[in-house]
Please model this.
Amino acid sequence: MSVAIRLIGAPTDVGAGSRGASMGPEALRVAGLREALQALGLRVDDQGNLAGPANPWQPPLDGYRHLPEVVAWNRAVFMAVRDALDAATLPVLLGGDHSLAVGSIGAVAAHCRARGRKLRVLWLDAHADFNTSAITPTGNLHGMPVACLCGHGPQELLALSGTVPAIAPHCLRQIGIRSVDAGEKRLVHGVGLDVFDMRTIDELGMRQVMDMALAGLDDETHLHVSFDVDFLDPDIAPGVATTVRGGPSYREAQLCMEMIADTGLLGSLDVMELNPAYDVRNRTAELAVDLIESLFGKATLMRA
Ligand SMILES: [Mn+2]
Model:
């Protein structure tokens, strides 16, 4: 793989229910993300951080918290990811809260539409992120990006990608899910999302789950990974605000990343919700870097 990687920092927590994900990009840099990827022989360009509005820390308005701020940040993310893809680089979005996936995946989807490429999105997360203003308990937009991408959400966010919905639900595979609100569950079933929850991983094992999640890819497929760090078990990854016990272990997470790398199709990546305010000596950022290395093809074991 000779394509250059472009790191894009999005230091904000306007979509989250706790402060601190705004420090995520810098924590990943301190943990040596760029150097780790360069050591694999990859070209890496860190374009620095995007700018956007401060977090006003207000209660919800009409079911959404900080909607204008979330829209502004998502516009910036959309343009940066679009520009990276137009420049034939591989964008890696350093979040930031997960609401920014609307802009990131919106740009990837627009890129694929313009070039007639297929899209597969792997959503690695403890949560389905399929809330809407009608059912959200909090109004936090980081719980809504998948719904927005599938056409359910505020018009300002739905319109970002140029087409509504930005992605067809059948493009998406959710992996690691273990916390879904009741109303959210109905919506997820209603749109027919492909969800590999933790029980499925327990019963079938990560290998079979990944075989299923990656089935049907071909050389014309753009593979996007949206990695919410709360996907991981909190015992190994305490540095997120929304921990849910019972996530993938270190080896399960490594296998997940390695199997994605084996496809050779990774085209874009989000690394989201890393929250240094909850972390212990930056170990979650270091773990994220370790897993990202595997995602880009570092063989952990003795396999050639
Ligand atoms: Mn998420």
User: Anything to note?
Assistant: Confidence is low (pLDDT under 50) at residues 300-304. Residues 98, 125, 127, 129, 228 surround manganese (II) ion (CB under 6 Å). The chain is about 35% helix and 15% strand. The chain has one domain: 5-295.
